[in-house]
Amino acid sequence: MYQNSKGYYWFRNPADGKTVGLGYDLQLAIRQSRTANAELLRRKGDVSLIQRLDGNVMTLQEWCDEYERRLALRKDIKPNTLDAAKHELNPLRNADFAIHSIDEITTVNISDLIEEVAKRGATMATKVLRRANYVFRAAEAKGLIKLGTNPAAPVEKPIIVVARTRLTIDEFKAILAKVRKDNVHWMENAMLLALITGQRREDIARMQFTQARDGFLWIEQSKGRTGHQAKLRIPLSLRLQAIGMTVEDVVKQCRDSVVSKHMIHHRRGRGNAKAGSPVKMGTISNTFADYRATAEIKVEPGQTPPTFHEIRSLSARLYADQYGPFVAQTLLGHKSEKMTNLYRDSRGREWTEVKVSAG
After folding, report:
1. Which is catalytic among the residues 52, 86, 334, 349?
2. Is 167 helix (H, G, I), strand (E, B) or coil?
3. Distance (Å, whole) CA 6 – CA 140
4. Do 301 and 180 share a domain, yes or no?
5. Domain presence at residue 287
6. Where residue 20 sits, what CATH number does that domain have?
7. CATH code where residue 82 lies
8. Between the CA of residue 258 and those of 238, 265, 297, what are the distances in Å?
9. Annotated catalytic residue: which of 78, 86, 309, 349?
10. If DSSP states are collapsed to H, E and C, what string results for 7-37?
């Protein structure tokens, strides 16, 4: 309720900003304003304090907080996974309708939210929808909503248009040539190690020399639920024809005069990093991006440049061509052929040779 300089009272609707005159009687204006506010709250569906104190109702916002606490207590949850879950929960937790009782949330509410998030990116919207499904399934199990009434279940998953460009072997070699010209040895080793092993940036950054023993490179991948990560034994004799090197060749190249247990390490002190200390993942990504730009890698309109992670896809394609799809799947640590096929898809960047056997 407001009053102008002439003493006239008026009410502004907080929902749409429209104003309505109330006259000059203060007590009447107060009563009308209070009545209007109460009705607006009822229409909005706010859960009353009494309802919440009685324990009859839990809002979606409160359940999101409880869901996050339960998630954090799980022994198999990783810090990065928990951080990602929080990021995916926030749009749901901060939605206008999150103040409603969880059993009053509708499919329309979730659908509208996903459409709004999709404006900032289909990938994020897909993750938020997936998390919403987890949240309401957990609410079903807890008895907060009836079984079969998950409001997120019917919502259609946003269509993700992949915009990141695949990396070709010629582009890889062009970037590598620029790295070698500047004698950035750790970057050269990181690129070669990623290509020869097909592993993720996280596993490349933390790889140690002790993992190369008994004729194999032993890798327990970082991605996956605790206790369920893929464990690989890659023969040191494994050779990739595209670069004319074996796994052992690359591991030996990582060794130098600097004492370090890490394969990818600084040769000289840099900022807070001492000689022999491991190179951080962000530094690997940023340096790769710098040399990708130096190599003038062309990108089609509407596409984004290939990142360091694209070396993993390139590795899968090269090994599949040389040894067959199953070798590529095993090397990447995938449980399903379907996932490996996503990595092997060049997205129209490479020519497929038609091979005809003699006879």
Report:
1. 334
2. coil
3. 57
4. yes
5. yes
6. 3.30.160.60
7. 1.10.150.130
8. 26, 9, 33
9. 309
10. CCEEEECCCCCCEEEEECCHHHHHHHHHHHH
Note the pLDDT of residue 227. Answer: 54
CB 186 within 8 Å of CB 266 = yes
pLDDT at residue 122 in the model: 84
Considering the entire predicted model, what is its pTM? 0.58
In-domain check, residue 152: no
Look at the block and give the residue holding tokens 């998950």: 150
Query: Does 309 qualify as catalytic in the annotation?
Result: yes
Which one of the listed residues 93, 185, 292, 312 is annotated catalytic?
312
Q: Which structural domain range is residue 111 located in?
A: 60-142
In a domain, 354, yes or no: no
pLDDT of residue 335: 64
Q: What is the mean pLDDT of each run of 10 residues along the chain (359 residues)?
A: 88 82 90 81 56 62 93 85 91 91 92 91 90 95 91 88 78 96 95 94 94 93 69 92 95 93 90 88 94 89 85 91 86 68 56 55
Which pLDDT value is given to residue 298?
Answer: 86
Are both 186 and 321 inside the same structural domain? yes
- 200 classed as catalytic: yes
Our count of domains for the chain comes to 3
**Residue among 78, 223, 239, 267 flagged as catalytic:** 223
Q: Based on the domain organization, do 176 and 104 belong to the same domain? A: no
353 lies in a domain?
no
- Number of C-alpha atoms within 13 angstroms, CB side, residue 143? 1
Element (H, E) at 213: strand 212-213
